[in-house]
Amino acid sequence: MATELRGHVAEKIGKLARPKAVHFADDLPKTRSGKIMRRLLRDIAQGNELGDVTTLRDPSVVDELKDQVSSTA
Known about the structure:
Elements (H helix, E strand, L loop, with lengths): L1 H11 L25 H9 L13 H13 L1
Helix pairs in contact: 2-3
């Protein structure tokens, strides 16, 4: 599936926009109001120190994503 997605992006947008890696998750880090915290997704992908996660609806999602990203790196 990841290969198909990378190919689709390369075809529709261009090879320059093709992602290096694709990760699948059951859930995303969301605030209690339901907003996706893109800052945390970016920090996890880049391996940066995470900031404040106290506003998350389910903080365990962050650990699951970190584990998945680190296992494929």
